[in-house]
Every structure is written in C-alpha cells, then in structure tokens.
Inverse folding.
C-alpha cells in the first residue's frame, strides 16, 4: 500500500529563486560585515556576533522588498555563490596552464569578481603561500 500524506502535515512552499541583483546585494551586504562573518573564532561571543551580522544582512535584503528570506537561505546562497566563484577561478587557472592555445576562457561574472576580490587573501580561495598543490 502506498502511504498517503496526513491532512495535518503542511507542505513547505518553495521560495522564488534568487535574482542576480539579489545575489549581488547579498555580497555587498556581507562585505560590510566581512570581518565578523569570516572570523575564525567560534566561541559563544563570536557566534552571537556572527548571528547578529547575518540577521542584519537578511534584514537589509528583506527591507528591499520582494521575497522574504531567512538567515539560512541567505547563508546557503552566499556559500554556494562563493563556491561557484572559486570554481570559476580554478577553471581559469587550469585553462591558463593548458598547452596548445585555443579560445580564451569565458569571462567571470560581476558577482564572482566581487567575491574573489573580497576573499583575495583567504587561504581557502588562493591556497597557502609556499604550499604545494596536489
């Protein structure tokens, strides 16, 4: 027998996708609080400051109007956008190291450029100086 959903269970309604303008605004807002958000400490006080900073970012996004976003949604979108930017940086580096010429690599978008600029010296983006890549 197939299980039928109970009438008391409410299904989550899917949010709209983030627009390019919304993602760019998230990056700009995170840039304002980047010292707090990217702090490496994880004690009680620092975590409270990080939560407050993320809440300020979400409040600014929700103040613009449109779709109401939660802290978890915004944090996840920012994390995925950073991952995409890092992937583009790696792809360009790999293309640059290939032999045989060929067409130039596709240009990075404005959001990726801004994220890479924001995380210019972060070891998780550019690696450890003097380290060997494997």
């Amino acid at each position: 027998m197939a299980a039928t959903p109970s009438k008391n269970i409410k299904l989550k309604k899917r949010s709209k996708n983030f627009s390019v303008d919304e993602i760019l605004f998230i990056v700009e807002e995170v840039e304002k609080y980047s010292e707090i958000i990217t702090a490496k400490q994880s004690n009680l006080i620092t975590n409270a400051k990080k939560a407050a900073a993320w809440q300020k970012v979400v409040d600014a996004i929700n103040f613009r109007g449109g779709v109401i976003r939660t802290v978890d949604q915004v944090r996840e979108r920012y994390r995925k956008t950073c991952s995409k930017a890092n992937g583009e940086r790696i792809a360009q580096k790999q293309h640059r190291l290939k032999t045989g010429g060929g067409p130039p690599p596709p240009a990075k978008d404005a959001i990726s450029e801004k994220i890479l600029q924001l995380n210019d010296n972060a070891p998780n983006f550019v690696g450890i100086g003097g380290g060997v890549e494997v």
User: Anything to note?
Assistant: Residues 20-121 form one domain. The two ends are 52 Å apart (CA to CA). The mean pLDDT is 82.
